[in-house]
Amino acid sequence: MSNSERTTEAKATSEKLVELAKRRGYFFQSSGAYGGVGGFYTFGPQGAALKSNVEDTWRDRFALAEGNMEIDAPTIMPEPVFEASGHLDGFDDMLIECPECGTSSRADHLVEDNTEYEDAESLPIPEVESVIAEYELVCPECGAGLADVAVENFNLMFDTNIGPGDAQPGYLRPETAQGIFVEFPRLKEYARNQLPFGVTQIGRAYRNEISPRRSIIRTREFTQAELEHFIDPDEDEPDLESVEDVTVTLYPAYEQQAEDGTPIKTTIGEAVADGIIANEWVAYFLGISKPWYDAIGVDMDRFRFRQHLAGERAHYAADCWDAEGEIDGNWIELAGFAYRGDYDLSKHADHSGDRFTVFKQYDEPKTVERATVDPDMSYLGPEFGGDAQRVVSELERLAERDRSLFTGETIELAIDDETHEIPVDKTGFAVEEQTEAGEHVTPHVVEPSFGVDRLVYTVLHHAYSEDEVDGEERTYLQLDPEVAPTVVGVFPLQTDDALEAEATAIASELRAAGLSVTYDDSGNIGRRYRRQDEVGTPFCVTVDYETIEADERTVTVRERDSTEQKRLPIDELPETLSALRAGAVTFAEL
Ligand code: GAP
Predict the structure, then answer these.
(1) H-helix or E-strand containing 23?
(2) Residue-level pLDDT at 6
(3) pTM of the predicted model, to two decimals?
(4) Shortest-distance Cα residue to atom 14 of ligand 1
(5) Fewer CB atoms inside 10 Å of the end CB: C or N, the chain?
(6) Which residues line ligand 1 (CB under 6 A)?
(7) What CA–CA distance (Å, rounded) separates 234 from 333?
């Protein structure tokens, strides 16, 4: 099958999936009664349950199994947070606006979709403008030429005001991560000041995307599941042995840049030994993520890890790999695994003046040279009034950072964007020998950051199947029972009080056992099976006359994928279906 045939077929799948999602309550555009608004989606009853199941398995794997802490921070944060994080200045996409119809497009996407450039995001704006001119690209909406139109940086954050008036500007967080970083001074206490430790958060993030597209793949409000793992870069090592045999498909930067470059199949252990994955912590998180993706139903033949090219990396990332899933013949980013170094904690320390460090005790006390200040308050007090203490903190910080600043007659420091000159002889600067029990280290951060909505879409897309049953076409979602929104459908075979009473009792008992159950007594039994197949319910239980009349109380249990049916005792249903859901037993083994 050619690539274009594959793309056409896959696109058809996407279209059918989006229809199914709406019809069966997975997801649909929000505020439909008012015409809908681009980039906002509501998860219906099935979608909300699938999403919540995916989040639960993520929590099990990345919070509980790793011994990490989970927090839940606000989604609106004040402006200084994003000044410090760099989002205010650098969280931009390239915007081009059609002079004829006013349609806004992402200039890099326009280039990628219509030329052979694959990574236009990493190009500087003037180069993107030249490519648009050279290829005579046009507005995707009205076809007007864009050759002479300027490309601009557009900041993706939604802004708001906190409280009445505009005195305190705030922003809807563009990543959940900042909610973790800003609380580091407190979180480190909960970790008893011991590195390494990890903090997770599952929550909403907001980005005012220029052109949201492909339903829930690129939206303006979405859910992230992020882990910020804080380490001592000089000491902490991951448990690589536990993942060294995990096989992975990797698409390193050098293969992407080679003319005939292709992804390579290897193990995590070999990839680290060969220097393909340079950072062991990133390798560890790729290693624990791959089996997790597999377990929740991402097709491993349509899954890979791709390294970011140098120009593609976010402003904070020293190295980054993406988990990617294949959809519509295209690879989409499901998660990013970034080594953020000490970027975030240092920035928040600089901007807030709080301590974003952990005290590391030495095995033996050490005698070290320390630069200290003991400022002359009789000078600073009258000179700086209420800001005198901030000046002291800044002098302490500068002395720790760069003692060469104190070699001249005056030292410059900035308070609230104003530069002040202070005579060095008023700072009490000195370099002294001190015996110290330990040091304050700024932890480095390794960050696996997962997009939940895209993952839900990918799980559904990879589960979408069609076949023929009893001469009829059937659509079904081959969802893994662990994440399927409904685990069991319970049906009375016919409209009959006795059958309905028995089926209702079975449904209640299965619910009491913690299973998600739907009860359906409308339409013929074949139609009810098709309905559950389309929703992705892995098992159906049918109550018939044999159930209520025979001495041995049994029901028919049908498996979605094979459509095979088996007769099982009612008493064993809760245990058997729970085992099937957990993957402890297969239907064929019953
Ligand atoms: N804290 C790091 C961070 O936010 P990111 O690569 O920008 O990194 C992480 O986002 C994940 O969030 C992505 O891999 C993707 O799955 C998801 N994501 C990002 N933007 C999105 C959008 N507009 N709609 C849906 N999901 C998105």
Answers:
(1) helix 3-24
(2) 45
(3) 0.88
(4) 335
(5) N
(6) 175, 177, 207, 209, 218-219, 222, 224, 226, 333-336, 447, 449, 451, 453-454
(7) 31
